[in-house]
Design goal:
- This protein is mostly helical and 460 residues long.
- Helices cover 67% and strands 1% of the residues.
- It has 23 helices and two strands.
- The chain has helices at residues 7-16, 20-33, 44-51, 58-72, 100-112, 114-122, 135-139, 141-147, 158-178, 184-199, 206-229, 233-249, 253-269, 273-283, 286-290, 294-310, 314-329, 346-359, 363-376, 382-398, 402-415, 422-435, 445-456; strands at 155-156, 202-203.
- The chain has a two-stranded parallel ribbon.
- Helix 2 packs across helix 4, helix 5 (100-112) packs antiparallel against helix 10 (184-199) and helix 11 (206-229) packs antiparallel against helix 12 (233-249).
- It is elongated.
Length: 460
């Protein structure tokens, strides 16, 4: 059976107005920018084969889409070019070498398409996906972004940046109040349309380019964090990878460190402590740590401590915890703290410290820190508050304090009203498992609590 000519790709090349040979030259140039050495020998014959219906390799499809996007002045994806039905079906997690803007649109489209999103969501979360490029790759990201030609004539202003940050604040508040399952579609739609369009425009100054790219990185991070909170881990990792690239393109080293910290948090939660330690160490690299404010440094350090504890490195974990406490103690009102969609405070440190102590086997210390987190948590952080209460009840139950655990879990269920969070839901699942030996005692507090938990989970 003969191959079918790729009419979508042919039409895009015709619109560009370049010969296949000249297009091959541009493809090699873009591939070199992105470190895709396997495309160094691409020539006219390769382009002719692709037009004729031969499926390019996944890296070639991505670089071809990026090359045509630049030439046509608009973002086009492998799907737009008819390149996604060959050797590698969509969706796929982004690679570090992918063009950032193309990835933003492609990943956003995947996230918004229920069937494609489901495929990516159920794909295995793999430690291999966490492999980081060399530090030089990150250090060169800003130069790569500066060299990117605008795809639209829109002149991006400081007001555009402010608008994006205001939207980030809105989505962040919603996440903290309602959980990661609420409002994700609107966030992703805004990223793949408005934000991608602004990143494709012309920047009046280098400062505006960096500010807009940093604001976009925070929104991509938020898309990843909400996917993580919803339990969609492969999707979350894809967004966090994209967010890290954007942060490095903005020259925002502390933000890149924060996103790598989120990846480490995810890794430790999913039982990959060695990968968590490696990612946390990358987040603490000299420039990411040195340029961060004290509050940000503390957050990086405490997640490093969690990874070390999960990896069984007790002495190193304890030292990392003490350093995180010292860093947070140096934060005060006079410090310059950048505008962020995330917030780290005393309650946050106490929560992460408690999780570290729990993993070290210090249940009494963990209970004390979880209690401190509950006491000092701001009221608007409903989702995190409910998760902390769930964890507190669990460590109380592990110590044999069932009545105290039931009281705490009852408060957790109260706090979860209206919250749509995979992590909060998981605390309820774990609660029911802990209550299993006791809930059959009719009329007992454990039985009543289990009935409430079962109802919240929607189980018969």
């Amino acid at each position: 059976m003969g191959r079918t000519r790729n009419v979508k790709l042919a039409a895009a090349i015709d619109e560009l107005g370049l010969s296949q040979a000249r297009l091959a030259v541009r493809i090699r140039s873009v591939a070199e920018e992105h470190g895709v050495g396997e495309l160094a020998g691409v020539g006219q014959s390769h382009v002719a084969k692709w037009v004729g219906g031969v499926a390019p390799s996944p890296p070639a499809a991505r670089i071809l889409a990026a090359t045509l996007s630049r030439g046509l002045g608009r973002l086009v994806t492998p799907t737009d070019l008819g390149l996604t039905t060959g050797a590698e079906p969509e969706p796929r997690p982004p690679a570090w070498s992918d063009d950032t803007l193309t990835t933003l649109v492609t990943l956003g489209s995947t996230d918004m398409d229920l069937d494609r999103r489901r495929l990516l969501t159920v794909s295995a979360y793999s430690a291999a996906s966490l492999a980081l490029p060399g530090e030089q790759w990150f250090e060169q990201a800003m130069d790569r972004a500066r060299a990117r030609k605008p795809l639209t004539t829109h002149s991006v202003t400081a007001q555009d940046v402010e608008d994006v940050r205001e939207m980030g604040d809105f989505f962040s508040r919603r996440d903290q109040k309602r959980g990661g399952c609420a409002g994700r579609a609107a966030l992703v739609a805004y990223l793949r349309t408005d934000v991608a369009g602004l990143l494709s425009g012309r920047f009046r100054t280098e400062g505006i380019r960096r500010s807009m790219t940093s604001a976009a990185a925070e929104l991509a991070y938020l898309a990843g964090w909400t996917a993580f909170d919803a339990g969609e881990h492969s999707l979350a990792l894809s967004w966090l990878t994209t967010a890290t690239n954007l942060a490095e393109e903005a020259g925002d080293a502390p933000l890149a460190g924060h996103i790598l910290r989120a990846m480490a948090h995810q890794a430790v939660d999913l039982g990959n402590p060695q990968e968590a330690v490696r990612l946390a160490e990358a987040s603490l690299s000299s420039r990411r740590y040195a340029q961060a404010c004290w509050r940000e440094r503390s957050l990086l350090g405490v997640v490093h401590a969690r990874g070390l504890a999960a990896a069984g490195e007790k002495k190193a974990a304890t030292a990392a915890l003490l350093q995180a406490e010292r860093d947070l103690s140096r934060a005060n009102e006079s410090d310059h703290e950048p505008h962020r969609v995330y917030f780290f405070c005393e309650a946050s440190l106490a929560h992460e410290t408690a999780a570290t102590l729990r993993d070290l086997g210090d249940l009494e210390g963990a209970e004390k820190q979880f209690r401190h987190s509950v006491r000092t948590r701001r009221a608007q952080f409903t989702r995190t508050h409910s998760v902390t209460l769930g964890y507190l009840g669990a460590v109380q139950a592990q110590q044999g304090h069932l009545d105290a655990a039931c009281d705490t879990w009852g408060k957790a269920l109260d706090a979860m009203t209206g919250v749509q969070s995979g992590r909060a839901r998981e605390t309820v699942v774990q609660m029911r498992r802990a209550l299993a030996p006791f809930h059959r005692r009719a009329g007992s507090q454990a039985a009543e609590l289990d009935a409430r938990a079962r109802s919240m989970l929607g189980q018969a």
